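$ ./design --mode recover --in tokens.txt
reading tokens...
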């Protein structure tokens, strides 16, 4: 059975399909000893595929729901020596990487996988996967600010998509508020910047829900593997 080269690389857990495409274009991939730079190239099981001189090995595919703690980097490595999300999965026999990312000081639900197809699908903007964040902000949202968040605010000269806003708790003595925000995008520091756009700084932020998935009984630093039914449901987005 043949499949596209970038898909084979992604399914081997080497990189996402998008990154695999860049590797191919950069001449980092060989098939049966020959450098391949054509994205349409197809390979079969009998073919030998090398990325940067290292043969890929087909791994079984796994996806985990992870409760990322604050103070952890959502990358596979860090040149400053800070703890990364992959440090929590060192005992597993396969390489995992995060689907998207959460800021260093943001906690909550993060998916970890070696399924490049799934990662590429979920991260693509057109699929609009809903993500629910809970933020503790300085100040109290005014009605017009809530309206702005719901209908889109401008970030980098671009208007954000409509969001859902739910006021969880208001502390007028401390002049703080806990707000739940549901978005379908994934811009850099998006939630923090949305609140900043209406004049409020975020003190604390966590992601409580991704698509239909929640943290349930997990505590910070814990994870669980998704079952086949959950994976199939994610692939419908």
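writing sequence...
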């Amino acid at each position: 059975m043949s499949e596209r080269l970038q898909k084979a690389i992604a399914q081997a857990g080497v990189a996402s399909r998008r990154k695999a495409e860049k590797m191919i274009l950069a001449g980092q991939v060989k098939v049966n000893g020959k450098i391949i730079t054509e994205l349409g190239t197809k390979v079969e099981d009998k073919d030998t595929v090398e990325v940067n001189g290292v043969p890929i090995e087909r791994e079984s595919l796994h996806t985990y729901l992870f409760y990322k703690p604050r103070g952890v980097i959502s990358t596979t490595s860090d040149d400053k020596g800070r703890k990364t999300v992959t440090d929590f999965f060192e005992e597993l026999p396969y390489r995992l990487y995060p689907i998207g990312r959460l800021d260093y000081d943001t906690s909550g639900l993060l998916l970890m996988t070696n399924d490049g197809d799934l990662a590429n699908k979920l991260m693509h903007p057109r699929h609009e996967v809903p993500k629910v964040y809970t933020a503790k902000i300085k100040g109290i949202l005014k009605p017009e600010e809530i309206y702005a968040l719901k209908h889109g605010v401008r970030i980098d000269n671009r208007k954000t998509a409509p969001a859902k806003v739910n006021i969880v708790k208001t502390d007028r003595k401390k002049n703080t508020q806990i707000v739940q925000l549901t978005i379908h995008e994934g811009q850099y520091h998006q939630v923090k910047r949305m609140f900043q756009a209406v004049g409020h700084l975020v003190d604390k932020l966590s992601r409580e829900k991704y698509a239909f998935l929640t943290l349930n009984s997990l505590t910070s630093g814990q994870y669980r593997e998704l079952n086949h039914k959950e994976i199939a449901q994610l692939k419908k987005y």
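exit 0
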